[in-house]
Structure formats: C-alpha cells, structure tokens
Backbone:
C-alpha cells in the first residue's frame, strides 16, 4: 500500500508579512518558532536550506501543500504550492506566531530573563492541524527520540507522497488519515513501532475529523478531546496542542527529563518531579509552556549521572 501519487501542478502563491509579525528583534526567528515542528534532522516533512529557507509539507483540509518561508529584515516571504496552498497562506500568520503574545510573558528568574533577552524572535507557532503533531508525538511515547524519528521517517516516506511544487528532493507530505488507519501490522513492526503505539495511531486516525476540531478549541478542552482516545494521555496531548493550538500555558507533564531540567535550572534540584516542576513554574501561570521552552533554550541542564536510555529495536524480535 502506498499513498504516493504525482500531484497536479498548482499555481504559486506568494505572501509577504511584515508589521503583524514584529518582535523585539524586528524579525521573527524562523528557526526558533518553527523548530518544534521538525521531528529530527532528517524529517521528510521539514527542510532547512543552507541559506536559511524553511520548507514544510503539510496535509491541510484542502489537500497536500508545501510552504517555503524566508526572512528578510522585518519581513517574511512565503511561497505555497499544491491543493492546500490557499489554506497554508491563510494560516501563515498563525504558523509564524502572529497570534502569540510574547508581551504577556514576565520573566521571574534571572536565567529565564537572560534567555528571553537572547531569544527575542521566539514566537509560539500555531499550525491549526492536529493529526500532523499527534502522530509523531504518539511515536515518541516511551522510546528514544532517535527511535521515534526513524519510525516517523520510514512511515512518511513509505505511505506519504512527494510534496507539491518545486520542493527539495525527499520532501514528503504525511499520509492521510485513511492511509494511517490501514497500515498493516507487519509494516508498523518494520518501522520499529510496537503494537500499543500503532493501535493508538489507528484509533486516532479513525476519528481524525473529530480530533481536528480540537484545533479551534480552547487548549484545555482540546486536550480533553484528545485524551478520550485510549493511549493518549497528558504527555501526548500537551505535546500536540502546544503545536496545533499555539498554547502558551500547556506545559508537558509525564516527561522523563523535563522536571529535572526545570528543577535544576530554577532551584538546583535535579530530582524534581512533575509536582515540583509545576510548583516552580507557578509564577508563570498562563505562560508555563513558554517558560519551559526558554529554560530548555538556556542550555542549563543537570550533569548526567545515569547512562542514556538504550534504544530498543523491536524489528529484531
């Protein structure tokens, strides 16, 4: 089974955005803003060129589409192709953080303040697309990022389709919901995805229209909608809604590393759990996700004592 096809040519749409994307640095930092959408250095849906252009391939409600974004001074120029071009163009401001309000954030710690000043172009992206963030988040459940990125890459290349337009070679649009739901069990295994994660993705794909509605909901309501699916818990719903809804307060809980990183950065406590992390982030109520991102961007992490989590290749079983 393969979802590949030769897309029909579509006219190029070019949009220039300037004043509505102003940040203290007078330009958005595309890498910081769109970086969370990239699933590893070889993500087939995301490409950064040596000149700093960012290419993304998405499956929109109108079909597959490609967007290329470039920053020039205080402006961002975007070109879009494919059946989803108009949808991507309409959602470009949100994608680049125009709906985000960084002025609502008040640093409460010296480390956070210093990072905030060094990263003035950070905006929180809002894609408006749930499934494209949910599926790779499910793949990242309880495995190393290397394993998850490899599985995402394998499945998108096998069941997705080449991105429309003059996209770089190897850029793909992820499969549609129907294709995700019909991937055979042995192909999940070949992609190094265990049965539990595969079943969660299949369940989500079967109710994709209902899940996509969450992109228009308030973040807390959106997370409840996602968590109705067995296999989707607080970690996965937060990771998804942060991207699809641009949610500044949806901090990730249940993560193996984040509580210790936040605890170490703000209190010198590498043993912090979720409860301690949330207490430390309480002064940032309404902006806890942004605070956590700035802490991660600070680079201040606790010294490693335990060995790294060993990858588990189920394909050898």
Residues:
């Amino acid at each position: 089974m393969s979802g590949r096809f030769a897309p029909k040519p579509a006219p190029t749409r070019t949009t220039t955005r300037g004043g509505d994307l102003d940040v203290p640095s007078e330009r958005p930092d595309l890498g910081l803003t769109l970086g969370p959408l990239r699933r590893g250095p070889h993500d087939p849906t995301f490409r950064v060129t040596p000149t700093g252009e960012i290419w993304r391939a998405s499956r929109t409600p109108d079909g597959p589409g490609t967007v290329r974004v470039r920053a020039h001074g205080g402006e961002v120029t975007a070109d879009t192709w494919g059946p989803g071009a108009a949808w991507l163009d309409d959602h470009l401001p949100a994608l680049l953080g125009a709906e985000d309000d960084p002025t609502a954030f008040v640093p409460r710690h010296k480390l956070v303040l210093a990072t905030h000043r060094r990263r003035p172009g950070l905006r929180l992206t809002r894609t408006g697309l749930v499934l494209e963030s949910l599926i790779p988040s499910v793949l990242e459940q309880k495995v190393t990022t290397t394993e998850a990125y490899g599985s995402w890459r394998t499945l998108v290349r096998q069941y997705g389709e080449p991105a429309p337009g003059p996209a770089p070679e190897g850029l793909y649009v992820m499969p549609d919901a129907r294709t995700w739901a019909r991937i055979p069990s042995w192909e999940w295994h070949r992609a190094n995805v265990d049965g539990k994660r595969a079943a969660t993705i299949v369940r989500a794909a079967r109710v994709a229209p209902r899940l996509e509605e969450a992109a228009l909901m308030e973040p807390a309501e959106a997370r409840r909608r996602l968590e109705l699916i067995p296999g989707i818990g607080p970690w996965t719903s937060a990771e998804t809604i942060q991207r699809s809804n641009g949610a500044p307060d949806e901090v990730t809980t249940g993560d193996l590393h984040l509580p210790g990183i936040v605890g170490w950065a703000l209190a010198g406590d590498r043993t912090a759990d979720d409860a301690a992390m949330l207490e430390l982030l309480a002064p940032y109520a309404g902006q806890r996700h942004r605070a956590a991102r700035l802490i991660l961007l600070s680079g201040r992490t606790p010294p490693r004592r335990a060995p790294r989590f060993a990858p588990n290749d189920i394909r050898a079983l």
